[in-house]
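HUMAN: Forgive my ignorance: could you write out one protein's sequence and backbone structure tokens?

ASSISTANT:
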Amino acid sequence: MELSGNVTINAARDRVWAALNDPDVLARCIEGVETLTRVHGDAGERFEGKMNAKVGPVRATFTGQVTLTDVQAPERYVLVGEGKGGVAGFAKGEAAVQLAAPGPDTTELSYQVKSSVGGKLAQLGARLIEGTAKGYAESFFTRLKAELETPVPASDPAAPDLLEPATADGLAASATPQSTPQSTLPELPTGVSPLVWGGGLVVLVLLFLLWQWG
């Protein structure tokens, strides 16, 4: 199966690159993730993790890893991954991810994914698998964009000058509890589940999903 696409993110390229290499950010953007860690080894850097995935009638917990190759920060890298879900089957593939910076606060992310599946997953049909992968990619990017495009809360006002006497109004204002900012992270569309833990797209393969974790 092959999957490609692009998305515009209203954030600086360096920030997008950092997010795509941060397991905490990726875990927040990928539905079904149970564990996700980044490992530094002699063979290069890779992500290892476990996720609960459902593709049509097949549901299983997949374990696998995605290795980063041809890394040229902050412009591109290639993700090579493989995941296994027991009797449910396996998935393997790779994804090439590129980041372009048309402006200081704009990033164009493009990806190309090539993957294959085996076991029960292979019996579901290309249309079902591809549809699930595309839906997952869209969901991942929706969360990633929300993560990166949400304005950073303004810092608290500077404390009043200690040499100036405090007024009653000032004391009252300082005593007023401040509301806690609420997350604006959107919920994933219902009925959309990750395809597999494979290469490409934490659409992220990130999905990717880019990688094809979904």
In short: Residues 2-150 form a domain with the Alpha-D-Glucose-1,6-Bisphosphate; Chain A, domain 4 fold (CATH 3.30.530.20).
